[in-house]
Design brief:
With 212 residues, the protein is an alpha/beta fold. The chain is built from nine helices and five strands, in the order H-H-E-H-E-H-H-H-E-H-E-H-E-H. Helix content is 47%, strand content 9%.
Length: 212
């Protein structure tokens, strides 16, 4: 077996050197590039950079929300488990497995990820929302905002899949200003819990003065 790098710091350093060499980061500000590089690192695909969409004040708004200890709301447990928690003062929240969620879903004939958002109400204002799995959750959140619900500070909307995922993210990107929120998202079908968590974890790093 050939020799390989074992030191985690050297692995990260070399990884991001290679990402900078392989990825077109033009069109992104220096601070936005931090998020883009994390998404490339997580996916292993430099072409992901071309699908990333970050609103103008998304990163600063997210950092401000973290500094103010605002709630962090996740659509699924996989997103929650992927978050870097050692720098957070309170645990991220996910209500997918709350005992009331399946009852609401059954009564309304909808997905559990949609119904779980009914339990977000006390925490939604000025929060950071991370949706990495369910397009229906992102659609429902935007319906809530259009109906006058209190607004989160930032939506990291990166659901993955074929049915509804491209459309939900496209709607978020083209209507986030009308909705009054900052956002990070990805074009097309790509996405997922790891990418959504990675975007959030980059905000945590930036809040603590760490960069790639």
């Amino acid at each position: 077996m050939e020799d390989y790098i074992k030191d985690p710091h050297k692995i990260e350093e070399r990884s991001f050197e290679m990402i900078r060499e392989a990825t077109d980061l033009s069109g992104f500000t220096d601070i936005q590039q931090q998020v883009v590089m994390r998404l490339v690192h997580t996916s292993g695909n430099p072409e992901v950079a071309q699908q990333v969409r970050i609103s103008d004040n998304a990163i600063n708004a997210g950092i401000d929300a973290l500094n103010q200890n605002q709630a962090v709301l996740c659509d699924v447990e996989m997103v929650k488990q992927g978050l870097t928690k050692r720098f957070l003062t309170q645990q991220p929240l996910c209500f997918l497995n709350h005992e009331d969620t399946p009852k609401i879903a059954s009564a309304n004939g909808e997905t559990r990820t949609m119904s779980a958002l009914e339990l977000w109400a006390p925490y939604l204002e000025n929060s950071i929302v991370i949706i990495g799995n369910a397009p229906t959750a992102l659609f429902r959140l935007m319906e809530m905002l259009e109906a006058g619900a209190v607004k989160p500070t930032l939506i990291i909307g990166m659901p993955v899949g074929f049915v509804g995922a491209p459309e939900s993210k496209d709607y978020l990107w083209h209507h986030h200003q009308d909705l009054g929120v900052e956002c990070m998202t990805l074009n097309g079908r790509i996405g997922g819990s790891a990418l959504a968590a990675g975007a959030f974890n980059t905000l945590v790093r930036l809040k603590n003065g760490l960069q790639f």
